[in-house]
């Protein structure tokens, strides 16, 4: 048997970073991975601006009870730069450019305004420079604000846009085909006969791959027939950078994935010291056009498929995209449970953060890791990892935790 790390190393050796890029508008870049760093095209803020609604003043004019004349109004977005002399101020809105002659903002709450709003009386004196956001205070033109290898979400894209960048260079999406196998599989909504089940792994894999940044080019359900499976696999691989399979990787007489790949591809099928997900496999399939396409074969039990996807397939995608893989965090067990003997356990858990900021994780079902329980993964926030030498997890014990992406 192999450890999780040993098997992961084998799978990662199948792929290298894609190295191909697309240039896309910022608004279309959500979920993409940066191929080049983002460099600011302007200072942010571009000019000194007010952090408060109030009055822009010269600090030299401030004292308790000082009376200042309001000579202008500067709303956000205004190009006005009113001149100020001793005893003068201007009304200013949050985000508006601070006049060149001013150096301090007095919030509106700290003054009394005359009935005609032409004068203010200072009731509290702020420090010089108070509530002024300086030009370039966040970052300056020419600095790197995001490194390559970052997946672009809403927060990152807000930063990119704020840095004045209109287009980004991103890694091409990996083209991935999904193949589920089994004569027993039927599409949702179909009438089930004895021995049949609804196909779910293929849909899970296709949607999870898309969410992780892949371009899903095919999603096939193939029968347990050697020739039909091989033909379908050739069709899937011919358009893909990677094929992810579910089912048929055990040692049964009808495990078509193992039978076909051992006969027609460079392949390896392993037992991995983990629960769920002990049977795993990988292969290199040579297409009719002569391309070698990597295949990652996952066990067919739904929870095993989901756990294996999180551990192995996401890591392969990360390598293709040139981004860092997600690490494990420290969490605390919320209840007692008994893990399997001599195998590392990966159990779907819900997580709660207590008043001290500690993450407390609880298995979604007390039996720990029944590999067929789809409902467990659907309720979970992520996976807890328990090492193979742990005989019992006690409430309060430290465990490793990784949140689903």
TrEMBL record:
It catalyses: adenylyl-molybdopterin + molybdate = Mo-molybdopterin + AMP + H(+). Its cofactor is Mg(2+). It is an enzyme of class 2 (transferase). InterPro entries: MoaB/Mog-like_dom_sf (IPR036425), MoaB/Mog_dom (IPR001453), MoeA-like (IPR038987), MoeA_C_domain_IV (IPR005111), MoeA_C_domain_IV_sf (IPR036688), MoeA_linker/N (IPR005110), MoeA_linker/N_sf (IPR036135). GO terms for cellular component: cytosol. One of its GO terms (biological process) is Mo-molybdopterin cofactor biosynthetic process. This is Molybdopterin molybdenumtransferase. The keyword Transmembrane does not apply. Keywords: Magnesium, Metal-binding, Molybdenum, Molybdenum cofactor biosynthesis, Transferase. Residues 177-319 form the MoaB/Mog domain. The lineage of its organism: Bacteria, Bacillati, Actinomycetota, Actinomycetes, Propionibacteriales.
């Amino acid at each position: 048997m192999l450890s999780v790390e040993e098997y992961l190393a084998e799978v990662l050796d199948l792929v290298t970073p894609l190295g191909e890029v697309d240039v896309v508008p910022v608004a279309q870049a959500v979920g993409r991975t940066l191929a080049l760093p983002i460099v600011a095209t302007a200072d942010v803020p571009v000019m000194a601006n007010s952090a408060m609604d109030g009055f822009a003043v010269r600090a030299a004019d401030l004292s308790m009870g000082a009376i200042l004349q309001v000579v202008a109004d500067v709303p956000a977005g205004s190009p006005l730069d009113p001149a100020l002399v001793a005893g003068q101020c201007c009304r200013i809105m949050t985000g508006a450019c601070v006049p060149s002659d001013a150096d301090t903002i007095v919030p509106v709450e700290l003054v009394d305004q005359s009935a005609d709003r032409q004068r203010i009386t200072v009731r509290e004196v702020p420090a010089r420079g108070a509530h002024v956001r300086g030009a370039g205070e966040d970052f300056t033109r020419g600095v790197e604000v995001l490194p390559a290898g970052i997946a672009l979400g809403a927060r990152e894209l807000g930063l990119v846009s704020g840095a004045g960048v209109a287009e980004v260079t991103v890694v091409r999406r990996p083209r991935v085909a999904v193949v589920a196998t089994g004569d027993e599989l039927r599409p949702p909504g179909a009438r089930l006969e004895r021995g049949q089940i609804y196909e779910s792994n293929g849909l899970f894999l296709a949607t999870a791959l898309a969410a992780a940044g892949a371009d899903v080019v095919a999603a096939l359900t193939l029968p347990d027939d050697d020739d039909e499976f091989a033909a379908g696999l050739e069709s899937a691989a011919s358009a893909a950078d990677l094929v992810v399979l579910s089912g048929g990787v055990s040692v049964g007489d009808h495990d078509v994935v193992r039978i076909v790949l051992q006969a027609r591809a460079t392949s390896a099928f392993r037992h991995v010291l983990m629960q769920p997900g002990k049977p795993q496999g990988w292969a290199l399939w040579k297409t009719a056009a002569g391309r070698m396409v990597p295949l990652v074969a996952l066990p067919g039990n739904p929870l095993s498929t989901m756990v294996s996807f999180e551990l192995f397939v996401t890591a392969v995608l990360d390598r293709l995209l040139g981004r860092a893989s997600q690490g494990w965090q420290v969490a605390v067990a919320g209840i007692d449970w008994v893990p399997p003997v001599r195998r590392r356990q990966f159990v779907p858990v819900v997580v709660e953060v207590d008043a001290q900021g500690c993450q407390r994780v609880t298995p979604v079902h007390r039996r720990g890791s029944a590999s067929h329980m789809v409902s467990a993964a659907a309720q979970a926030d992520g996976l807890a990892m328990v090492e193979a030498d742990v005989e019992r997890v006690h409430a309060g014990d430290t465990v490793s935790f990784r949140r689903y992406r």
